[in-house]
Amino acid sequence: MMNWKSKKWLIPVILLIGITIVWRSGVLAGDKTQTKAADTALSVKVAAAQYVDIVPSLNFNGTLEGQISATIGAKISGRIEQVLVQEGQQVNVGDPLIKLEAIELANSVRQAGDSVRKAQASYELALNDFNRYQILYDKGAVSEQQLDNAKVKLKTAEADLSSATANQSSTQQQYSYGVISSPVDGVIANRTATVGQVVSPGAALMVVQDINQVYAVINVEQKDLGKVKIGQTASVSVDSYPDTVFAGTVEVMNPEAGSVSRMFRTKIKIDNSAGELKPGMFAKVALSTGSSAQILTIPQSAVVQKQGLYYVFTLEGDKAVRRQIEIGDMMETAIAVKAGLEPGQQVVTTNTSRLKDGDAVRVAQ
Q: Which CA distances in Å does 365 have to 29, 43, 124, 301, 352?
Protein backbone atom coordinates (compact mmCIF):
# COMPACT_ATOMS: atom_id res chain seq x y z
CA MET A 1 0.00 0.00 0.00
CA MET A 2 1.03 3.57 -0.71
CA ASN A 3 1.91 5.64 2.37
CA TRP A 4 0.73 9.23 2.93
CA LYS A 5 3.87 10.80 1.59
CA SER A 6 3.58 8.90 -1.63
CA LYS A 7 -0.04 10.18 -2.06
CA LYS A 8 0.83 13.88 -1.72
CA TRP A 9 1.58 14.28 -5.37
CA LEU A 10 -2.05 13.30 -6.25
CA ILE A 11 -3.57 16.37 -4.59
CA PRO A 12 -2.44 18.94 -7.21
CA VAL A 13 -3.57 16.63 -9.98
CA ILE A 14 -7.03 16.22 -8.47
CA LEU A 15 -7.36 19.99 -7.97
CA LEU A 16 -6.32 20.67 -11.56
CA ILE A 17 -8.85 18.18 -12.88
CA GLY A 18 -11.61 19.77 -10.76
CA ILE A 19 -10.78 23.27 -11.94
CA THR A 20 -10.79 22.10 -15.55
CA ILE A 21 -14.20 20.46 -15.13
CA VAL A 22 -15.66 23.58 -13.53
CA TRP A 23 -14.23 25.83 -16.27
CA ARG A 24 -15.52 23.58 -19.04
CA SER A 25 -18.95 23.54 -17.43
CA GLY A 26 -18.99 27.33 -17.35
CA VAL A 27 -17.93 27.59 -20.96
CA LEU A 28 -20.58 25.13 -22.06
CA ALA A 29 -23.22 26.92 -20.01
CA GLY A 30 -22.20 30.24 -21.58
CA ASP A 31 -22.36 28.76 -25.06
CA LYS A 32 -25.83 27.40 -24.34
CA THR A 33 -26.97 30.80 -23.04
CA GLN A 34 -25.65 32.54 -26.15
CA THR A 35 -27.25 29.94 -28.39
CA LYS A 36 -30.55 30.29 -26.57
CA ALA A 37 -30.42 34.10 -26.95
CA ALA A 38 -29.68 33.75 -30.65
CA ASP A 39 -32.57 31.34 -31.03
CA THR A 40 -35.03 33.76 -29.38
CA ALA A 41 -34.02 36.72 -31.61
CA LEU A 42 -36.79 37.42 -34.15
CA SER A 43 -35.83 37.05 -37.80
CA VAL A 44 -36.57 40.24 -39.74
CA LYS A 45 -35.83 41.98 -43.00
CA VAL A 46 -34.69 45.57 -43.17
CA ALA A 47 -34.53 48.41 -45.70
CA ALA A 48 -32.78 51.76 -45.69
CA ALA A 49 -34.59 55.09 -45.59
CA GLN A 50 -33.64 56.80 -48.82
CA TYR A 51 -34.33 59.89 -50.90
CA VAL A 52 -36.20 59.43 -54.17
CA ASP A 53 -37.33 61.90 -56.84
CA ILE A 54 -41.09 62.24 -56.52
CA VAL A 55 -43.63 64.28 -58.45
CA PRO A 56 -46.32 65.21 -55.90
CA SER A 57 -49.68 63.81 -56.95
CA LEU A 58 -53.23 63.02 -55.92
CA ASN A 59 -54.22 59.41 -56.43
CA PHE A 60 -57.68 58.16 -57.35
CA ASN A 61 -59.48 55.04 -58.43
CA GLY A 62 -61.75 55.50 -61.42
CA THR A 63 -63.63 53.86 -64.27
CA LEU A 64 -63.12 54.26 -68.02
CA GLU A 65 -65.93 55.58 -70.23
CA GLY A 66 -66.16 56.18 -73.96
CA GLN A 67 -65.90 59.82 -75.03
CA ILE A 68 -69.20 59.55 -76.89
CA SER A 69 -71.78 57.03 -75.73
CA ALA A 70 -75.05 56.60 -77.63
CA THR A 71 -77.76 54.41 -76.12
CA ILE A 72 -79.60 52.58 -78.90
CA GLY A 73 -83.34 51.99 -78.59
CA ALA A 74 -86.39 51.54 -80.79
CA LYS A 75 -88.61 54.49 -81.73
CA ILE A 76 -91.59 52.24 -82.39
CA SER A 77 -92.98 49.08 -80.86
CA GLY A 78 -92.24 45.84 -82.64
CA ARG A 79 -90.58 42.45 -82.66
CA ILE A 80 -86.87 42.13 -83.46
CA GLU A 81 -86.34 40.25 -86.72
CA GLN A 82 -82.54 40.58 -86.97
CA VAL A 83 -79.66 41.74 -84.78
CA LEU A 84 -76.97 42.74 -87.24
CA VAL A 85 -74.00 43.42 -84.93
CA GLN A 86 -72.02 41.72 -82.18
CA GLU A 87 -70.66 43.20 -78.96
CA GLY A 88 -67.24 44.74 -79.54
CA GLN A 89 -67.88 45.27 -83.27
CA GLN A 90 -66.77 48.55 -84.86
CA VAL A 91 -69.57 50.45 -86.62
CA ASN A 92 -69.91 53.74 -88.49
CA VAL A 93 -72.62 56.38 -88.58
CA GLY A 94 -75.65 55.01 -90.44
CA ASP A 95 -74.73 51.34 -90.20
CA PRO A 96 -77.84 49.18 -89.55
CA LEU A 97 -77.82 47.57 -86.10
CA ILE A 98 -81.27 46.03 -85.61
CA LYS A 99 -84.13 45.21 -87.96
CA LEU A 100 -87.72 44.97 -86.71
CA GLU A 101 -90.48 42.91 -88.30
CA ALA A 102 -92.06 45.28 -90.83
CA ILE A 103 -94.98 43.44 -92.48
CA GLU A 104 -97.63 45.70 -90.95
CA LEU A 105 -95.53 48.79 -91.56
CA ALA A 106 -94.98 47.79 -95.18
CA ASN A 107 -98.74 47.32 -95.62
CA SER A 108 -99.33 50.73 -94.09
CA VAL A 109 -96.84 52.32 -96.47
CA ARG A 110 -98.51 50.62 -99.42
CA GLN A 111 -101.96 51.76 -98.31
CA ALA A 112 -100.70 55.30 -97.77
CA GLY A 113 -99.28 55.30 -101.29
CA ASP A 114 -102.62 54.15 -102.70
CA SER A 115 -104.39 56.92 -100.80
CA VAL A 116 -102.02 59.53 -102.22
CA ARG A 117 -102.57 58.30 -105.77
CA LYS A 118 -106.37 58.40 -105.35
CA ALA A 119 -106.24 61.85 -103.78
CA GLN A 120 -103.98 63.05 -106.58
CA ALA A 121 -106.43 61.78 -109.21
CA SER A 122 -109.37 63.42 -107.43
CA TYR A 123 -107.47 66.67 -107.16
CA GLU A 124 -106.57 66.68 -110.85
CA LEU A 125 -110.21 65.96 -111.77
CA ALA A 126 -111.48 68.76 -109.50
CA LEU A 127 -108.88 71.14 -110.94
CA ASN A 128 -109.93 70.36 -114.50
CA ASP A 129 -113.62 70.85 -113.59
CA PHE A 130 -112.89 74.17 -111.94
CA ASN A 131 -110.90 75.40 -114.94
CA ARG A 132 -113.73 74.33 -117.27
CA TYR A 133 -116.38 76.05 -115.14
CA GLN A 134 -114.25 79.19 -114.99
CA ILE A 135 -114.19 79.38 -118.82
CA LEU A 136 -117.93 78.73 -119.05
CA TYR A 137 -118.65 81.32 -116.36
CA ASP A 138 -116.60 83.91 -118.25
CA LYS A 139 -118.81 83.20 -121.30
CA GLY A 140 -121.98 83.42 -119.23
CA ALA A 141 -122.77 79.75 -119.83
CA VAL A 142 -122.91 78.77 -116.12
CA SER A 143 -123.99 80.56 -112.99
CA GLU A 144 -121.75 81.90 -110.24
CA GLN A 145 -123.17 79.26 -107.90
CA GLN A 146 -121.98 76.49 -110.22
CA LEU A 147 -118.50 78.05 -110.32
CA ASP A 148 -118.44 78.30 -106.50
CA ASN A 149 -119.42 74.63 -106.20
CA ALA A 150 -116.52 73.67 -108.48
CA LYS A 151 -114.18 75.80 -106.37
CA VAL A 152 -115.32 74.08 -103.14
CA LYS A 153 -114.73 70.65 -104.68
CA LEU A 154 -111.23 71.75 -105.74
CA LYS A 155 -110.36 72.97 -102.25
CA THR A 156 -111.68 69.75 -100.71
CA ALA A 157 -109.65 67.65 -103.14
CA GLU A 158 -106.58 69.77 -102.41
CA ALA A 159 -107.01 69.26 -98.65
CA ASP A 160 -107.50 65.51 -99.13
CA LEU A 161 -104.30 65.32 -101.19
CA SER A 162 -102.36 67.27 -98.57
CA SER A 163 -103.64 64.98 -95.81
CA ALA A 164 -102.85 61.83 -97.79
CA THR A 165 -99.34 63.11 -98.55
CA ALA A 166 -98.69 63.92 -94.87
CA ASN A 167 -99.94 60.48 -93.85
CA GLN A 168 -97.67 58.88 -96.43
CA SER A 169 -94.65 60.79 -95.07
CA SER A 170 -95.49 59.79 -91.51
CA THR A 171 -95.99 56.15 -92.49
CA GLN A 172 -92.74 56.06 -94.44
CA GLN A 173 -90.92 57.55 -91.46
CA GLN A 174 -92.44 54.92 -89.18
CA TYR A 175 -91.34 52.28 -91.67
CA SER A 176 -87.78 53.68 -91.63
CA TYR A 177 -87.76 53.23 -87.84
CA GLY A 178 -87.99 49.50 -88.48
CA VAL A 179 -84.25 49.58 -89.20
CA ILE A 180 -82.31 50.97 -86.23
CA SER A 181 -79.01 52.54 -87.32
CA SER A 182 -75.96 53.82 -85.47
CA PRO A 183 -75.94 57.58 -84.81
CA VAL A 184 -72.16 57.66 -84.20
CA ASP A 185 -68.91 55.95 -85.10
CA GLY A 186 -67.91 53.57 -82.35
CA VAL A 187 -67.90 50.11 -80.82
CA ILE A 188 -70.93 48.05 -79.79
CA ALA A 189 -71.27 47.53 -76.03
CA ASN A 190 -73.91 46.31 -73.57
CA ARG A 191 -75.93 44.53 -76.26
CA THR A 192 -79.13 43.08 -74.82
CA ALA A 193 -81.18 42.83 -78.03
CA THR A 194 -82.13 39.32 -79.18
CA VAL A 195 -84.07 37.99 -82.15
CA GLY A 196 -87.78 37.64 -81.35
CA GLN A 197 -87.67 40.17 -78.53
CA VAL A 198 -90.66 42.52 -78.40
CA VAL A 199 -89.46 46.07 -77.84
CA SER A 200 -91.10 49.33 -76.84
CA PRO A 201 -90.00 52.88 -77.62
CA GLY A 202 -87.14 54.04 -75.42
CA ALA A 203 -86.01 50.62 -74.19
CA ALA A 204 -82.18 50.36 -74.31
CA LEU A 205 -81.03 47.59 -76.66
CA MET A 206 -77.29 48.33 -76.89
CA VAL A 207 -74.74 51.13 -76.64
CA VAL A 208 -72.39 52.51 -79.29
CA GLN A 209 -69.28 54.09 -77.79
CA ASP A 210 -66.60 56.13 -79.53
CA ILE A 211 -63.40 54.88 -77.86
CA ASN A 212 -60.77 56.69 -79.94
CA GLN A 213 -60.75 58.95 -76.92
CA VAL A 214 -61.78 57.65 -73.50
CA TYR A 215 -62.38 59.24 -70.13
CA ALA A 216 -61.13 58.06 -66.77
CA VAL A 217 -63.92 59.18 -64.45
CA ILE A 218 -62.93 59.95 -60.85
CA ASN A 219 -64.60 61.53 -57.82
CA VAL A 220 -62.71 64.38 -56.17
CA GLU A 221 -63.24 65.18 -52.49
CA GLN A 222 -63.94 68.75 -51.45
CA LYS A 223 -60.61 69.03 -49.60
CA ASP A 224 -58.72 68.26 -52.83
CA LEU A 225 -60.83 70.40 -55.15
CA GLY A 226 -58.38 73.31 -55.11
CA LYS A 227 -55.57 71.04 -56.32
CA VAL A 228 -57.42 69.90 -59.47
CA LYS A 229 -57.61 72.16 -62.54
CA ILE A 230 -58.83 71.87 -66.12
CA GLY A 231 -55.84 70.96 -68.32
CA GLN A 232 -53.90 69.35 -65.46
CA THR A 233 -51.79 66.36 -66.53
CA ALA A 234 -52.53 62.88 -65.26
CA SER A 235 -51.02 59.39 -65.40
CA VAL A 236 -53.47 56.53 -65.85
CA SER A 237 -52.82 52.81 -65.46
CA VAL A 238 -55.00 49.70 -65.77
CA ASP A 239 -54.42 46.13 -64.61
CA SER A 240 -54.59 44.82 -68.19
CA TYR A 241 -51.38 46.71 -69.07
CA PRO A 242 -49.37 46.84 -65.82
CA ASP A 243 -46.21 48.12 -67.52
CA THR A 244 -47.92 50.93 -69.45
CA VAL A 245 -48.78 54.41 -68.21
CA PHE A 246 -51.32 56.35 -70.30
CA ALA A 247 -51.11 60.13 -70.39
CA GLY A 248 -54.25 62.17 -69.84
CA THR A 249 -55.51 65.65 -69.06
CA VAL A 250 -58.36 66.90 -66.91
CA GLU A 251 -61.10 67.98 -69.33
CA VAL A 252 -64.36 68.07 -67.36
CA MET A 253 -65.06 68.99 -63.73
CA ASN A 254 -68.62 68.89 -62.46
CA PRO A 255 -69.27 72.22 -60.70
CA GLU A 256 -71.75 70.59 -58.32
CA ALA A 257 -71.05 67.84 -55.78
CA GLY A 258 -73.03 64.62 -55.92
CA SER A 259 -76.05 64.71 -53.62
CA VAL A 260 -75.06 61.43 -51.94
CA SER A 261 -71.27 61.18 -52.29
CA ARG A 262 -70.60 64.92 -51.84
CA MET A 263 -67.77 64.48 -54.33
CA PHE A 264 -67.11 66.22 -57.64
CA ARG A 265 -67.26 64.01 -60.75
CA THR A 266 -64.19 64.70 -62.89
CA LYS A 267 -63.19 63.35 -66.31
CA ILE A 268 -59.62 62.70 -67.49
CA LYS A 269 -59.34 62.55 -71.31
CA ILE A 270 -56.97 59.87 -72.68
CA ASP A 271 -55.94 59.20 -76.28
CA ASN A 272 -56.92 55.64 -77.16
CA SER A 273 -56.18 55.48 -80.88
CA ALA A 274 -54.53 52.08 -80.32
CA GLY A 275 -57.79 50.77 -78.85
CA GLU A 276 -56.15 49.23 -75.78
CA LEU A 277 -58.45 50.85 -73.25
CA LYS A 278 -62.03 49.64 -72.97
CA PRO A 279 -65.05 51.30 -71.34
CA GLY A 280 -65.81 49.76 -67.96
CA MET A 281 -62.17 49.06 -67.05
CA PHE A 282 -61.05 50.10 -63.57
CA ALA A 283 -58.22 52.63 -63.63
CA LYS A 284 -55.71 54.17 -61.23
CA VAL A 285 -55.23 57.88 -61.77
CA ALA A 286 -52.41 60.09 -60.48
CA LEU A 287 -52.86 63.85 -60.92
CA SER A 288 -49.62 65.83 -60.83
CA THR A 289 -49.81 68.63 -58.25
CA GLY A 290 -46.29 70.08 -58.37
CA SER A 291 -42.73 69.82 -59.67
CA SER A 292 -40.31 66.98 -58.91
CA ALA A 293 -38.71 66.96 -55.45
CA GLN A 294 -36.49 64.67 -53.38
CA ILE A 295 -38.45 63.01 -50.59
CA LEU A 296 -37.24 60.63 -47.86
CA THR A 297 -39.14 57.36 -48.19
CA ILE A 298 -39.40 53.94 -46.58
CA PRO A 299 -41.43 50.86 -47.51
CA GLN A 300 -45.06 51.02 -46.36
CA SER A 301 -44.58 47.65 -44.66
CA ALA A 302 -42.20 49.27 -42.16
CA VAL A 303 -44.84 51.60 -40.71
CA VAL A 304 -46.84 50.65 -37.61
CA GLN A 305 -49.91 52.69 -36.67
CA LYS A 306 -51.14 52.88 -33.09
CA GLN A 307 -53.70 55.26 -31.63
CA GLY A 308 -53.34 57.68 -34.54
CA LEU A 309 -49.53 57.80 -34.33
CA TYR A 310 -47.00 56.22 -36.68
CA TYR A 311 -43.89 54.27 -35.69
CA VAL A 312 -41.04 52.28 -37.19
CA PHE A 313 -38.48 49.90 -35.68
CA THR A 314 -34.92 50.87 -36.53
CA LEU A 315 -32.10 48.36 -36.45
CA GLU A 316 -29.51 49.33 -33.81
CA GLY A 317 -26.97 46.58 -33.31
CA ASP A 318 -28.98 43.45 -32.67
CA LYS A 319 -31.94 45.36 -31.23
CA ALA A 320 -35.13 46.79 -32.75
CA VAL A 321 -35.73 50.31 -31.42
CA ARG A 322 -39.16 51.86 -31.83
CA ARG A 323 -39.22 55.41 -33.19
CA GLN A 324 -42.16 57.72 -33.80
CA ILE A 325 -42.25 59.29 -37.26
CA GLU A 326 -44.35 61.80 -39.17
CA ILE A 327 -45.55 60.46 -42.50
CA GLY A 328 -46.38 62.22 -45.76
CA ASP A 329 -47.92 61.07 -49.02
CA MET A 330 -48.34 57.38 -49.78
CA MET A 331 -46.97 56.02 -53.03
CA GLU A 332 -47.46 52.65 -54.65
CA THR A 333 -45.33 50.67 -52.17
CA ALA A 334 -43.50 53.41 -50.28
CA ILE A 335 -44.44 56.22 -47.94
CA ALA A 336 -42.87 59.64 -47.44
CA VAL A 337 -41.30 60.44 -44.06
CA LYS A 338 -41.45 64.07 -42.95
CA ALA A 339 -39.70 63.65 -39.58
CA GLY A 340 -38.22 61.04 -37.25
CA LEU A 341 -35.69 59.32 -39.55
CA GLU A 342 -32.41 60.08 -41.23
CA PRO A 343 -31.31 58.88 -44.68
CA GLY A 344 -29.62 55.48 -44.50
CA GLN A 345 -31.23 54.36 -41.25
CA GLN A 346 -32.28 50.72 -41.42
CA VAL A 347 -35.95 50.05 -40.67
CA VAL A 348 -37.56 46.67 -40.05
CA THR A 349 -40.00 45.72 -42.82
CA THR A 350 -41.24 42.31 -41.64
CA ASN A 351 -42.73 40.92 -38.42
CA THR A 352 -43.29 44.44 -37.09
CA SER A 353 -46.54 43.40 -35.39
CA ARG A 354 -44.55 40.95 -33.22
CA LEU A 355 -41.91 43.44 -32.11
CA LYS A 356 -41.60 45.49 -28.94
CA ASP A 357 -39.13 48.27 -28.28
CA GLY A 358 -35.70 46.78 -27.56
CA ASP A 359 -36.45 43.26 -28.79
CA ALA A 360 -33.52 41.22 -30.06
CA VAL A 361 -33.57 40.66 -33.81
CA ARG A 362 -31.45 39.04 -36.44
CA VAL A 363 -31.45 40.12 -40.07
CA ALA A 364 -32.56 37.39 -42.45
CA GLN A 365 -30.14 36.81 -45.28
A: 28, 9, 105, 18, 17
User: Can you give the residue range of the structural domain that contains 124?
Assistant: 103-177
Q: Is residue 17 part of a domain?
A: no
In a domain, 10, yes or no: no
pLDDT tens column, 266-313: 999 999 988 899 888 999 999 988 777 888 999 999 999 998 899 999
CB 213 within 8 A of CB 228: no
Look at the chain and report how many structural domains it folds into: 3
Instruction: For residue range 157-202, list pLDDT tens digits in order.
Output: 999 999 999 999 999 888 889 999 999 988 898 899 999 999 999 8
Task: Say if residue 121 is in the same domain as residue 165.
Answer: yes
- Reference 37, options 365, 362, 364; nearest CA is 362
Q: Report yes or no on 115 lying in a domain.
A: yes
